[in-house]
C-alpha cells in the first residue's frame, strides 16, 4: 500500500523538516512497511536521512537552463531526489499544462529512471456528461504515456472532489479503478478529498493500492493515522 502526501504550496522549510522527521520516526517506531511518500513545496526540498520517499511536485525537463521560475534535474540531484509528481490536475487546469507538455516531462524523467506518480482525472462537467465522455477524457490523459514503465504509479483524482469535501461513492471509485486497472499494471492510487475519516474505507476498496492526499495530509498526525490504516489493511 502506498500513502502519499502532496503538501502543495504549504509548510515552510522548517515546518517541512519537522513534518518529515516526525513521520520518519513514526514509521520506524511502529515498524511500518507500507510506502510513504511526501511531496514538499519546491522551496522546502532538501536532503533527508529518512525511510520516507521524498519527491518533487514539479520540475522542468532539463538539467538546468534559462527557464525562469523552474527547477531542473541539477537541483533534484543535489538532494538525491528520484521521484516526481507529473500531471496533477492543478498543473493541468490552473497552470495550463497540456498533454504534450506533460508527455515531454514524463518521457524525460522516465529516461532518467525516476519514480513517476502520474495523475489522471476528470472535472465535474465530464463526469456529468456520462461514462463514455468521461472515459474519453481520461483516456486522452494516457496518450503517449508508457503505461508499462516499471517505476510508474498512477493516481486517479476526480478533479471536482479535490478540496471540495465531495467524494465519489465507493461504487464509483470501484468502477473507475476497475477500468483504469485494465490500462496499466502500475499501482493505482485514489486522490480526491481523502481524509482521516474515509481513508481506511477507500484503501480497502478493490483495485485501490493507496491514496494521494492533499490538504488532509498537512497535519502530520493525520497523515500518520492514514499510514497506520494502510498497515492495518495489509496485515488483515
From TrEMBL:
Answer yes or no on keyword Kinase: no
Top-level class of the enzyme under EC nomenclature: isomerase
Q: Might you name a Gene Ontology BP term for this protein?
A: gluconeogenesis
A Pfam family of the record is TIM
Q: Which InterPro entries match?
A: Aldolase_TIM, TIM_sf, Triosephosphate_isomerase, Triosephosphate_isomerase_AS
Q: What is its main location?
A: cytoplasm
Q: In which pathway does it act?
A: Carbohydrate biosynthesis; gluconeogenesis; Carbohydrate degradation; glycolysis; D-glyceraldehyde 3-phosphate from glycerone phosphate: step 1/1
Task: Supply the alphabetized keyword list.
Answer: Cytoplasm, Gluconeogenesis, Glycolysis, Isomerase
Output the CDD domains linked to this UniProt entry.
TIM
**Where located?**
Cytoplasm
EC numbers listed for it are 5.3.1.1
Example GO molecular function: triose-phosphate isomerase activity
Q: Which GO terms describe its cellular component?
A: cytosol
What's the catalysed reaction? D-glyceraldehyde 3-phosphate = dihydroxyacetone phosphate
Family statement:
Belongs to the triosephosphate isomerase family.
> What is the annotated quaternary arrangement, including any partners?
Homodimer.
Protein name, per record: Triosephosphate isomerase
